[in-house]
Amino acid sequence: MKKIILFSVAAIALAFTSCKKDSNKSSSQAHVTVKLTDAPGAYDAVILNIKQVVILSSGGDKTVDVNSGPIDILRFRQGRDTVLAGVDVPAGRLQEVRLVLNNTGNRVVINGISYDLNTPSGQTSGVKLKVQDNLTGGVEYTLLLDFDAAQSIVVTGNGKYNLKPVIRAIPQAVSGALTGSVSPIGSYPKVYAIMGTDTVGTIADVNGKFYFPGLPAGTYRINFVPVSPYAVKSIDGIVVTNGAVKDMGTVTITQ
């Protein structure tokens, strides 16, 4: 049976990434993008064959396959990174994040010579580290995993190389979300969140509720464009903050 190596991320801190212009995500889901970068190491190449990313939260667990094939992590340093996976995760308390490596295809290249990276048997069951961060529905998160090649590769007494991953997380940009309701429900407005030259649109649902996930932090004008005979309405100065859901309450649309 093929062995799978699991290791979790030490000292993880979650952070939010800037938004996509998409207002259709559920408020019960948070989108997590996992990226990998590298701290310098004195090697020609460090190849990791990553199989999956596993995210465990109080709302449920998600496993996503990594389809990039073996990755030379030394190509991603000095501000460069590569996306491993992106997945919608039930909102709730983040409990654990793991990377799952194939047991073969992990290697280090030194002075042009390739060596297999062996993983000690103690890691086959996974190093489980609890992570205490909240996943807010409608907010997009980025985990930038900084792999420390210099500390993660250990030379044994018989000249072999062991992989003992040392990883830290680097905070990224933050996004927020915006919600509210319209009255009367029969005004059926289209709703637009406008900041500068950027406009994000949605519609109120059958209960009159509107929701904008993944908005960059800033001050917005919210435009309501209802059906006739109701009048267009604009509200200025709506502030969206990082990692929070701004609730506008009930907005009354008049004729």
From TrEMBL:
InterPro entries: Carb-bd-like_fold, DUF4382
Transmembrane segments: none
Domain DUF4382: 30-165
Domain of life: Bacteria
A family per Pfam: DUF4382
Protein name in the entry: DUF4382 domain-containing protein
Source species: Mucilaginibacter pocheonensis
